[in-house]
Specification:
about 180 residues; alpha/beta; Rossmann fold; five-stranded parallel β-sheet; about 50% helix
Length: about 180
């Protein structure tokens, strides 16, 4: 893998991905690429199937720009990271889940780009659901189903991942330890 190590904070909605991504970014003094779909929703009020490709492309552009910026800086291994508060598989999974399909270009991009991550931090659903107009699945059974979908996506592709669970402090400690354990 060339360039900085990309860390994907990954999992179902309302599991603390943004919070954890920001904590990791601060801890490792690494750039954090926020979730563009959330910004898109805030601006447009909704997301449809036709928005999936533009959202994916902008997320990819921002992530690649952050990685390129890190490459221009002289760094040691510990700071050679880019923290991603979502990634290509997430866009594909949400498209399939919400619309029953996914644009081919998003699917191809997700399948290719998922190999770019040194580690996926899969966040468990063992924290309380925080209501938000952008969230769809407050029911515990639905949340568990989503976790199985996200975990299955990683396992079927044999992608490196660690399940992160527990309270907020435990999650942060476990995520930092997982990143620090990278070769």
């Amino acid at each position: 893998m060339n360039g900085p190590l990309r860390i994907a904070v990954f999992g179902p909605e309302s599991t603390g991905k943004t919070r954890l991504a920001e904590k990791l970014s601060a801890h490792f003094a690494a750039p954090c690429v926020p979730e563009y779909a959330r910004q898109f929703w805030d601006k447009h009020g909704a997301i449809g199937l036709e928005d999936m490709l533009p959202i994916a492309k902008e997320q990819w552009r921002r992530e690649d720009a952050a990685a390129a910026e890190v490459c221009h800086i002289i760094y040691d291994k510990r700071s050679a990271l880019v923290i991603c508060d979502t990634e290509a598989l997430t866009t594909m999974l949400w498209s399939d889940l919400l619309y029953g399909t996914c644009p081919d270009e998003v699917r191809r991009g997700a399948e290719k780009r998922c190999r770019n991550y040194a580690l996926y931090l899969l966040l468990d659903t063992d924290v309380p659901f925080a209501p938000d107009p952008q969230r769809c699945f407050p029911d515990p059974t639905d949340r568990e189903k989503c976790l199985r979908i996200w975990r299955g996506a990683l396992e079927r592709r044999h992608l490196p991942h660690v399940l992160i669970h527990g309270d907020w402090a435990e999650r942060e400690r476990a995520a930092i330890a997982a990143v620090e354990a990278l070769p």
